[in-house]
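Key idea: predict the complex, not the pieces.
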Amino acid sequence: MQKPTLYTCLSPSLLRLYDVTGSIVVIIDVLRATSTIATAFSNGAKSIIPVETVAECIRLGKQMDAITAGERDGQIAEGLSYGNTPFQYTPEFIKDKTLVLTTTNGTRLLHMALADGAKSIITGSFPNLSAVCNYLLSQKQNVVLACAAWKDKINIEDTLFAGAVISRIKDSFSINCDSSQIASSLYNEAKPDLFEFMKNKNASHYHRLMGFGCEKDIRYCLSEDGAPVLPIYREGQLVNL
Amino acid sequence: MQKPTLYTCLSPSLLRLYDVTGSIVVIIDVLRATSTIATAFSNGAKSIIPVETVAECIRLGKQMDAITAGERDGQIAEGLSYGNTPFQYTPEFIKDKTLVLTTTNGTRLLHMALADGAKSIITGSFPNLSAVCNYLLSQKQNVVLACAAWKDKINIEDTLFAGAVISRIKDSFSINCDSSQIASSLYNEAKPDLFEFMKNKNASHYHRLMGFGCEKDIRYCLSEDGAPVLPIYREGQLVNL
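Result:
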């Protein structure tokens, strides 16, 4: 039997080059949208509605009496109460709640994949790495690993996560994709200590978040399986599969 | 004194993210446009006119009584006499001649950089690696390493060349660019044997060109300093600086 294909898209600007219509698209925004999404579900969130703009976030939050959160340029967006740090989303805060979320890169990419007709969409991050890999292995469908990047510029951390997924599931997929090979190589170099790797390479988003005092966030977002859930997009919202 | 900046752009689709107006842009199309360009100059070509379309190539070739060459999808383009293999451009064939050249990725990227207002444009490939590095070190200006990729998909070989340049000149530049770090890491892994690396990773363009029987081309295009010249774009054509 022919193996399903796997491609890695390292920037939203490149998404149009990949056929997502028959694929599971994994949205990857390691620092910090998809890590926060996994954490919120792991702590009992009922659903998360990703929206593109702050205005829509506020409007929908009022309408649904939901928690509204989001960031722009790495900080809490003006007009919103909560940001993008996974540590905000404790069980006490988020259990059984609906979260309306907007972020600089991740939520935008999710809407791009939707607009392009993605067959299904899940979100991936180190805190839910194993859940993502197990799901992709079980589905036996084509996969596009879609990195949110930073304002379309390729970043190290999302590339590393793509590489981590590939290193675990590559034998079950047909991979004819240089970006996947590049991600894989990078992850193999980094995996002894992802945090040290980000630091040594002076990764641009590492640098940005350290400037905001977010070392704890970075360390958590680079740790595997702290939030072992599978967020999947269904009818306008992410739910915990 | 502040060091000039260096950025790496891994696909033409991302070029708009980088400010090329104050920068030297290095056009990188390792397999095979920029390797062929360096080789043709090294063997005495007078000038090379990069054009975007096959029709323009034919028209201009007639008008100037020049050699016309080009490829589409890795093979000689229909209507043109010569392709994109560096071994075509021997001194007997190319000395003192003008070459009008069109290729799938490299010549298109050069025109994009021109349209974006690049301060100056040179072409880079392993056969002229040292010449490129020495020039960039001597100019002390901002640099954008621009990979031609394959129909906008990031490829291993152009990324490797960017990494090779960075590994040689990084101490003289300020590099706050994840793509440059990724290229650098990839090159460090690959440098013991670039050909074996391309083979082991089943690089997509390695695979494509091997299918056309071009192993000799690939080996040459991955070898350093076989054509130690510096092609620079001036008034509509590339000349040997």
